[in-house]
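Study this:
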Amino acid sequence: MSSSENTTKVHVPAAFPTLKKISKKGYYVRLVCKKGRGVAVSLHRALESITSFHVQNSNLSTVDDDFVLTFALDVTACGFEINMTTLKLWLSSAFINEGFEFNTFPSH
């Protein structure tokens, strides 16, 4: 069993990621979730699992009892057209796979 298979995933309530288009193929992404043991590690694992796109930069900060993860994403490398709704669902699945549970429905 590898070390990644042996880790326990945290279950963290979070808001769906918000996206803003910042260039023809670039997006700014923001995700807010509650702080807790192992949450920062899970956020970074989810971010590292996004291999279909190029994460240009990222920042993890705290505001009160929340973590705020922001990152810039370049979708040029994916090789196909992608709309904001599909991208939001794709990104959400990366966080769900790390144990995040979204407590609001995504807005378009």
